[in-house]
Amino acid sequence: MTNTNILISGASIAGTATAYWLRRHGYTVTVVERAPAIREGGYKVDMRGAALEVIERMGLLEAARARSTDMRIATHYDAKGRAVATMDADLFGGRMGDDVEIMRGDLNELLYDLTREDVEYIFDDSITGIAEDGTVTFERSESRTFDLVIGADGAHSNTRRIAFGEESQYARDLGYYVSICTVPNTLGLDREEAVHAAPGRTVNVYSTRQDTSAKALFMWSSEPLAYDHRDTAGQKELVARAMAGTDWEVPALLDAMRGAKDFYFDSISQIHMDRWSNGRVVLVGDAGYCASPASGQGTSVALVGAYVLAGELAAGGGLDGYEREMRAFVDANQALAPANVKGMVIGSRAALWFQLKMIKLLPHLPGRDRMIDRIAGAIHRAATAITLKNYPE
């Protein structure tokens, strides 16, 4: 498939990383992105295990470390604003050893800068159809023919809908919702996370290194909600209703949320598919196997998927080889989410009391190392549940 003409839909982490590896293996690559430019900002994401090896092979590890969030502590507050428990930020985030936490926009900028010279990017456009012969139609551009189309356009993938059918066939709702936006740093946070939890609801405010603003994250358990994906104002009202009656700083945060320009809202769901390719179309990252934010591994899985897909195409394993190499790794990382989310959003006051008590006692417990392994070890094992091949270049 040398010099094969490949189209990637989506210029976020999975798309830009796949573009890099395909170009490195000699393919001709075009990326189409619905947004008018590379997306900036976003929330913080982790890179662990095999994903760090991928980033290192790209020559970006030191640059990524230089942009790390440098988070220090996470403090839990009660309804009256009193600090009730504090823990190390890495332990709070399930990080061990060399794991790197970075803002999503910073990572995407590094990947884009690595590819912009020799990858064709088409912004403010999207795919409308894919024919069996590889002819692709677009909303704005003239139709073109490609040998392979890669869907890297997220959990709500347009490419997947066109090639595989409606999202409802593949989405598994875990029973929670999440919303994230930028807010003023009125709490004066400096590389800190401030957390308040109530039964079925959690609010986390954090500010990373060299950031004068803060991010507010709202997460709650819920039956499936009916809403318009394009109606941001309506989604903000859903968040406000879900958090109504929650004390601490939550009323002020909700007021700030209503004016936020970078508001994000979605269900915490996963994508499960029996196969990630169909004819000339293949999926990578969240489009094919979203693990959800609750896994803590979405970015890492996308980076590994990009490396393996491009490598298998170059080495002759093709799309079947990609499936074989990635399936167990994806399964291990998707399995993290159901248990993780129950630890993020606690269902009862008694369970909340117990969790905070354990956080306070953790530094003094004789079985401290076993407790830490219980928190972070499962994520580390999933993050390393693949041995990366050295693909020929």
TrEMBL record:
InterPro entries: FAD-bd, FAD/NAD-bd_sf, FAD_aromatic-hydroxylase. SUPFAM superfamilies: FAD/NAD(P)-binding domain. One of its GO terms (molecular function) is monooxygenase activity. Keywords: Monooxygenase, Oxidoreductase. Residues 4-330 form the FAD-binding domain. It comes from the Bacteria. PANTHER family: MONOOXYGENASE, OXIDOREDUCTASE-RELATED. This is FAD-dependent monooxygenase.
